[in-house]
Design brief:
The chain has 348 residues and is an alpha/beta fold. It has one domain (26-345): Aminopeptidase (3-Layer(aba) Sandwich), CATH 3.40.630. The protein has helices spanning 26-43, 56-72, 140-157, 180-187, 226-235, 258-261, 267-274, 311-326, and strands at 84-90, 96-106, 115-121, 166-172, 196-202, 215-218, 240-242, 280-283, 287-291, 342-345. An eight-stranded mixed beta sheet has the order 1-2-4-3-5-9-6-7, sandwiched between helices. Strands 8-10 form a two-stranded parallel ribbon. A hairpin with a 5-residue loop joins strand 1 and strand 2 (96-106). The model is unreliable at 2-28 (pLDDT under 50).
Length: 348
């Protein structure tokens, strides 16, 4: 998850099992858990060298993701001849790096022309050779957990004949360098922005507290009707969806939902609105992030590796969200809500 320049955000904090799984078929549960475990161990393995944007290892992950998309049955976005949306990212020194989002599509087999976005970032921060001992930042929770959850979510949707919206599954690059991958897509969209109904990003969904199993939270819960909509449906799956962990941390602006929700807001506008200095007028799409992180200290640390991930809880969350999404009525509309900080309007 990206660190932001908003002064009120506490430096170093970020986003971030139930054995009762969403899938009723025991053999399928075991198969899905094993898949998720395998995927996690690939993404967070030392061989990936921390999945730094522009590295050979990160390019290898792109091809691996394409193979997983094809295995699951995630299609290429209509009108595109590749899953890869290539772009040039820049590191903190301003050096150009070859980067790529991995974008796929699940048709709703319905009459809707609307789209719902679900995704996570697959890049991380690489290595630090100055450290003694472990020098690899494996990024298992941040955000291999979100990538695995996105794949499980997509796998869950593929079992249904129809869905309320078309679905885009996105794996973003260069998030750790300032949300550059999702920003690039928002500025160069493969889907008309006015056809995107809503969506959420998985961000640090792999390490729940022991007393908070089957419990997640959403950023920007006061900003749109996505929060109450998913909260009600998730409750039917045995999951709690809480409000944002701490409103003062500005987490709504720190994940790959932000470039969609804040299409034309400047950093200064966001800062003033966030600090309740001046309400900002913003064009955006109701897009949020979902997490289970509640302050554990593995963020951007070498111990964020596969061994700390609660795979059964992660799978349960992704499958439960998939089932919740499937049960939404065909006429579901996600709307911006009145709030004290932003005056939201949708793109035309």
């Amino acid at each position: 998850m990206k660190m932001t320049t908003i002064k009120t955000v506490i430096l170093g904090l970020c986003f971030g099992s139930s054995l009762v799984l969403a899938n009723d078929n025991e053999s399928q549960d075991k198969s899905t858990i094993q898949l998720a475990d395998d995927w996690m161990n690939y993404l967070a393995h030392d061989d990936r060298q921390g999945r730094l944007t522009g590295s050979v290892e990160n390019t290898d992950v792109q091809q691996w993701l394409i193979e997983r998309f094809e295995d699951i049955g995630i299609e290429q976005v209509p009108g595109q001849d590749s899953y890869l949306q290539k772009f040039t990212a820049h590191n903190r020194k301003g050096e150009p790096l070859q980067a790529a989002n991995v974008i796929g599509y699940i048709p709703c087999n319905c009459e809707s022309e609307r789209y719902f976005f679900v995704g996570a970032h697959y890049d991380h921060v690489g290595t630090n050779p100055k450290l003694e001992g472990d020098q690899i930042f494996n990024g298992a929770d941040d955000d291999a957990s979100g990538v695995v959850a996105s794949l499980i979510f997509a796998k869950t949707l593929k079992q249904y004949d129809s869905l309320p919206f078309n679905v885009v599954i996105a794996a973003w690059d260069a998030e750790e360098m300032g949300l550059q991958g999702s920003k690039y897509f928002a500025q160069n969209p493969w889907i008309p922005l006015n056809k995107i109904e809503s969506g959420f990003m998985f961000e640090l969904v792999g390490v729940p507290l022991e007393d908070k199993l089957n419990s997640a939270w959403m950023t920007g819960d006061k900003y749109s009707t996505l929060y109450p909509t998913l909260k009600a449906e998730l409750a039917k799956q045995g999951w709690e969806l809480d409000p944002v962990l701490d409103p003062k941390m500005g987490l709504f602006f720190r994940s790959d939902n932000a470039p969609f929700a804040m299409l034309d807001a400047s950093k200064d506008d966001i800062k003033k609105a966030f600090q309740n200095e001046k309400k900002a007028e913003v064009t955006g799409i109701p897009m949020h992030a979902i997490s289970v992180w509640r302050g554990q200290g593995h963020y951007h640390q070498p111990n964020d590796d596969a061994s700390i991930i609660n795979i059964p809880n992660l799978v349960s969350l992704a499958e439960s969200l998939g089932k919740a999404f499937h049960t939404l009525p065909a006429d579901t509309a996600i709307e911006w809500l009145e709030n004290g900080q932003f005056e939201f309007t949708r793109p035309e």
